Amino acid sequence: MKIFSIFAFATCGGYSGHTSIKVRCLDAKNETLEAAFGYPFRLNTVVFKNLDTKLCNSTLPQTHLQGDFSSSAQFFVTFAVFVFLYCMGALVLYVGYLHLYRGAGKLPMIDFVITMVVALLWLISTSAWAKALTDIKISTGPEMVLDIGFCHLPQTPCQFGAVSSMGSLNVSVVFGFLNLILWAGNAWFVYKETNLHSSPEAPVPAPGGTPAPAGM
Asked: Are 137 and 39 in contact (CB under 8 A)?
């Protein structure tokens, strides 16, 4: 499971891309403006590069992208890192101190509770990141032209240019939900090690009674 947590935070935390718009000047050459963005996706701090204030013979203000999605992205990545570290510690416990784990009544229960909490947090963090990713695609896609003020001026009409592929971010969401499935499934095996799970005992026959024949 630690491998899947590595893929989850690596595919999200290592992303960088760019988006662009094309400005059609009525009496001058056309211009392409680009904005580079990446983790942690504070898009409201990203400005369009090479934005000449005299573009198309008009005075244009500094323009930012819209939205701040850093909380969802950082929660997802930070949680994945902590899960990776927990898996490393649990691996050391299982490999080197398995006799202590099975001999102590509290350790399996603590492990079960942590496993359930981790599975729940995978659900929460991945759902929040999936929603944020959808909003990032909107804020960097064709719809962003509607939020750029100078694009509504008659002398500087704009059209969407291009945006970098977000395939790795889509993969990070897939790995997030895959981690959820793995941890939820692992909870059953951890539960079997706790005192809550006990195999059913065979009924004890009454003194002097005749055991019931097999197959009855």
From this structure: no
